[in-house]
Amino acid sequence: MIGRISGRLDYRASDHVLIDVRGVGYIVHVSERTLAALPGPGEAVSLYTELLVREDLLQLFGFPTLIEKEWHRLLMTVQGVGAKAAMAILGTLGAEGTSRAITLGDARAIQSAPGIGPKIAQRVVLELKSKAPAIMAMGAGPASAAPDLDEVVEPPPSAPARAARKPAAPAPSRANHSADALSALQNLGYGPGEAAQAVATAAAETPEAEAPALIRAALKLLAPKG
User: Fold this and answer.
1) Is 75 in the same domain as 49?
2) Which of 29, 152, 165, 180 could form a disulfide with 140 if both were Cys (CB 3.0 to 4.6 A apart)?
3) pTM above 0.85, yes or no
4) Name one GO molecular function term (predicted).
């Protein structure tokens, strides 16, 4: 599995780019949103990738962040949503917009993507709504953008340097989970005050809950009371 491509951008087409990696060119399909954010030919570029394997076809799809790659994978689990349709949704809404639309049950936002009809949009919302908080929590911590080329090709440290490394960081604390949940809610458009109050209430009711569970509980508290 090819999980990431790092090299020099050779050329840009309407829906894909060619990335030269030490003399080997890889065609990577990208959304319009991703294409617009990429540098010009000859510049260093790095994308997370998903390899689509069919009987007569191998295609690489590229994403600027891991969370967008994960959304692409999840969108394709919905019946009727293929790789190109998933890219159309992400190209129209972005990872955050997709998270927001699915979490809030906004099928019209999903339908705004080219080629997505009302039935498919409704199916996307219904099937993925319960999975949205976990994906949102992935993007609530440090930025998960693909690293720069210089970072990728940096030589590994020597044995003494490896031995001197600090031990792995401890598991996220309760405060970390609350902070991640708060960040995810603010990314969805909720104000800092109302988001903080909802997260605090959810954390008090379920002290052992991790970020995805806190997000779900807080969203229930913030949902309009009918």
Assistant:
1) no
2) 180
3) no
4) four-way junction DNA binding
CA distances from 46 to 40, 51, 126 (A): 13, 15, 33
Contacts of 190 (CB under 8 A, 6+ apart): 198, 222
CATH code assigned at 198 = 1.10.8
Domain count, the chain: 3
Residues 52 and 79 in one domain: no
Domain end call among 63, 92, 112? 63
Nearest to 31, CA basis, from 68, 75, 80, 67: 68
Same domain? For 39 and 80 the reply is no
* Structure token digits, residue 168: 């792995």
Residues 54 and 13 in one domain: yes
The range of the structural domain enclosing residue 46 comes to: 4-63
Beta-carbon count within 10 A of 7 CB: 21
- Residue 160, judged by CB atoms within 10 A of its CB (0-12, 13-18, 19+), counts as exposed
Q: How many residues does the chain have?
A: 226
Which residues make Cβ contacts (< 8 Å) with residue 93, sequence separation at least 6? Answer: 100, 101, 109, 110, 112, 113
Alpha carbon 187 to chain centroid, angstroms: 13
Per-residue pLDDT 10s for the chain (226 aa) are 688 999 999 999 999 999 999 999 999 999 999 999 999 999 999 999 999 888 788 899 999 999 899 999 999 999 999 999 999 999 999 988 898 888 888 999 999 999 999 999 999 999 998 887 777 776 554 444 555 444 444 444 555 544 445 445 444 566 677 778 878 887 777 877 677 778 878 887 887 888 888 888 888 888 876 5
